Amino acid sequence: xxxxxxxxxxxxxxxxxxxxxxxxxxxxxxxxxxxxxxxxxxxxxxxxxxxxxxxxxxxxxxxxxxxxxxxxxxxxxxxxxxxxxxxxxxxxxxxxxxxxxxxxxxxxxxxxxxxxxxxxxxxxxxxxxxxxxxxxxxxxxxxxxxxxxxxxxxxx
Length: 156
Fold this sequence. Notes:
By secondary structure, this protein is mainly α. It has helices at 7-10, 12-27, 32-46, 49-61, 66-71, 83-96, 98-101, 106-115, 118-140. α3 (32-46) runs parallel beside α6, α3 (32-46) crosses α9 (118-140) and α6 packs across α8.
């Protein structure tokens, strides 16, 4: 597929707004490994090739294992994720698919609160909001896939 437009150059202000949200996510105190799992899972659900390319590269560069990346679509059946990661992935899926259900259940909220205090849950929610925004920009404008190089260095 050919890129439709470069949204970063077409509206630098809109790009900066998304980037500021992204920067806040990374200043939140959430673990970078958790943020990358959230970004990858939401991007899988949304079918965003550009973001999957980017965030699998970033996750690997930050030390994530191939196995955990491969098993992410079936995280419920895979024993390699912590309870905190499972709560974050369930929250990510529910927020990403909220148009289908139009709610977050009390049970899911309670599960998330076991692992995230109020601030951390808001920060996690912002991470989900941010990646869903990036996914929508990349999909709508067909961002070019494959050229991304992680600023985190080579795979460890």
